Each structure stands twice: as structure tokens, then as C-alpha cells.
Amino acid sequence: MPTLLAITVSPRYEHSTSRKLTELFVEKWRSGHPDGQISDRDLIKTHLPFVDAHWIGGAFTPPEQHSPESAAAIKVSDDFVAELKSADHIVIGTPMYNFSLPAVLKAYIDHIVRVGVTVSSDNVGLLTGKKATIILASGGNFSPGSPVERFNRASDYLRQVLAWIGITDVEIILADRARAGMTGETAVESFGEVVSLAAAA
Q1: 31 vs 25, 35, 133, 193, 198, CA distance in Å?
Q2: How many CA atoms does the CB half-sphere of 33 hold within 13 Å?
Q3: For the chain, what is the domain count?
Q4: Taking the chain, what is the end-to-end CA distance rounded to the nearest angstrom?
Q5: What Cα–Cα distance (Å) separates residue 173 from each residue in 18, 32, 160?
Q6: Full domain range(s) for residue 194
Q7: Mean pLDDT throughout 157-177?
């Protein structure tokens, strides 16, 4: 059966543009895949730890050499990777912070990019055959032709890092100027159609 992994990042919840658009995406995806399975990963509720020495010990030593701390640290990563491997389509709804990603999303990425697990030792991505949709909400105007378009570091980074682990079919929906609707409603009206089309694809 088709599977969707929905990753949400914003701490604003009911006032979040990226969350409202991700909810719409999931709703439209579900209607097009009535036999599908959906998994949710809310990074705000996950209380995600940053990569530390224990994590590094877990990632680069055999399991039989893991300390209890390393085993616990790498289990977080193992769980995230298992979710990714089981998904056919991944949707990530995130705000843009200061031209880039929220720290919690970067921490998540650091957990899922692992040599020998999601990328080979000779730099070949191992999570192939998957599709990703990125819903990126921002208060500014970073659309093509905007004077500040080049300051959008988030889009290129997400495309690059997903390709690094083998996910090259990536669509980015830039929900910019979302500041006009501080509760997210304006953005749903403005970007709902493109999100719905992405979910149906």
C-alpha cells in the first residue's frame, strides 16, 4: 500500500502557515489514496536531541561496542531512518528562519544522513524510489525575480541533502509572503490549489 510520512516543524500550531498547508496536503493525499497509510512526525513534540559524542559513537562503531548512552542516542536516528525507509512519499512542512531552516529540522537531517545507512561510503544515496514535497513558508518574498530570491538558502539545501540520501524527486512549494496571514488562513487560500495538485500527483 502507498505510504506517506508527514513531517511538521513549526511551533505555532494552529497559527502556522506551514502546518495548515501540510494538513491540506495530507487530506488531499488521503482522498487520492484511500488504502494508503500515513505516519506523522511532529519535530516540535519529538524533543529532538542534537548530534553529540554518544551519537557519533553509535554511528561509527559496531553495535556490540556501543555504550548504553551510544545505543540510546543512535536509536533515535534508527527510528527516523526506519520511518523514511517505509515511506513512498515524504512531505515536510516548515517555516523559513533567517533564510534557512529551523534548528530542529537541521537536527533531524543530521540524524538521517548516515554513512552506510542512508548514503554509501562512496557517496551514493540509498533511499531511492521515493518522492518528497517541501512546503516552505516564509514572511518575505523569495519568489523567482524577487530582489532577495538569492537569499533563500533553505530550498537549495533541502533539495541537495535529500538528493544526497537518494531522494531526487523533490517538489518545493514556496509559500512566501505568508506574514500577510498571521493565522495561516491567507496562505491556505493562496497556496491551497498548488498544494492540492502536489498531493494528487
Answers
A1: 10, 9, 17, 15, 13
A2: 18
A3: 1
A4: 16
A5: 10, 19, 16
A6: 3-200
A7: 95
531511492: which residue's cell? 128
Q: What is the DSSP string of 8-75?
A: E--TTGGG-HHHHHHHHHHHHHHHH-TT-EEEEEEHHHHTPPPP-HHHHHHHSS-GGG--HHHHHHHH
Indicate the range of 23-37, 59-73, 148-162, 176-190 predicted with least confidence.
Answer: 176-190
Write down the pLDDT at residue 179: 60
pLDDT for res 123: 95
| Average pLDDT of the residues in 45-73 | 95
- Which residue's entry shows cell 531522494? 167
Express each pLDDT in 126-136 by its tens digit: 999 999 999 99
- Cut 0.90: pTM above it: yes
CATH code (residue 21): 3.40.50.360
Please choose, from the candidates 13, 38, 8, 12, the residue with its C-alpha nearest in 3D space to the C-alpha of residue 26.
Answer: 38
